[in-house]
Design goal:
Largest sheet: 4 strands, mixed
Subunit structure: Homodimer.
Distance between the termini: 103 Å
Structural class: alpha+beta
InterPro entries: DnaJ (IPR012724), DnaJ_C (IPR002939), DnaJ_domain (IPR001623), DnaJ_domain_CS (IPR018253), HSP40/DnaJ_pept-bd (IPR008971), HSP_DnaJ_Cys-rich_dom (IPR001305), HSP_DnaJ_Cys-rich_dom_sf (IPR036410), J_dom_sf (IPR036869)
Pfam family, one: DnaJ_CXXCXGXG
Helix content: 25-40%
Strand content: 25-35%
Domain CR-type: 136-214
Number of strands: 15
Radius of gyration: 40 Å
Mean pLDDT: 80
Domain J: 5-69
Shape: elongated
Amino acid sequence: MSKRDYYEVLGVQRNASEADLKKAFRRLAMKYHPDRNGGPDAEAKFKEAKEAYDVLSDAKKRSAYDQFGHAGVEGGPGGFGGAGDFGGAGSFSDIFGDVFGDIFGGRAGGGGGRRAQRGVDLRYDLSLTLEEAVNGKDVSIRIPTQVDCQFCGGSGAKPGTKPKTCPTCGGVGQVRMQQGFFSIQQTCPECRGTGHVIEEPCEHCRGQGRVQEEKTLSVKIPAGVDTGDRIRLAGEGDRGELGGPPGDLYVQVQVQPHPIFTREDSNLYCQVPIGFVVAALGGELEVPTLDGKVMLKIPAGTQTGKMFRVRGKGVKPVRGGPLGDLICKVVIETPVNLTERQQELLRDFEESVREGGSRHNPQSHSWLDGVKSFFEKMGL
């Protein structure tokens, strides 16, 4: 009986990737392996799938098969021994370890303990004034960090002694656990994957090989940073494990509230209270900026809430862009604690303004006209 095409057996296209082949064989192995399926055709279908996978997962055999078909790999795959005996292929747990082992962090038959691990990234919250954030500055910060213990050289063992090979895993760092027909690898509970144990721990680091210290770093804060910006210091985080690279340090910027200004993107905002006489007659006011003072001209008849823009007195964004502006919002302040004479003068002033009708208070008259029309429609 002629053999079926290997690609057809696995149910993949001829340009299938290695990952596609492995995925297809996993599916068939789970379905037809005799350890899981006692059906009459299960063993034959599993053998067929195993043979197809053995050929197509090998680059040289696959190339020969693609050129010459089954004739190009005759006598090659035989993945169950020359006679095709299933017993020679191993149990389902062996197949699982070979093809499925990557699910559990490596091939089940392979060795090797824990791999080198990159150190943890650290975060440092830096509080800045608005002036410091806008202008930039150099700051020194102190951060806790893990360094190799100088007494044991980072081994964790008492000076004069050395770590010993773990008796549980034999220095591999992993142990095989049998769960039914599954055989999987787990990190060795004795050495936690390091492959060695410390019988006499170093007294200074308590067997950890690392101790915590503080180090001082100089950080250049660029001009224009704002709350939420982060400055990365590569390699200044926690040290890596088993020779892995250190992590990074991220300096998180938090800008303190300012008594005068608030910031929105590249613009600064401030509220400027003025008396109603200045608002009515106009005048000039001296207003602050982050780099000095400017004169703000108030035109006659200015209403509360009016915005005045002072160009170029904002913030230069840290990521580039035009210099922002200072936006001044005018708020007219109502006089308080008036004397009887001042109250009398205001009453006289109010009477003279009322005599002018809507010419002096157009908004008030417009609003009153609208209220009157509304009441008429409501029949009030």
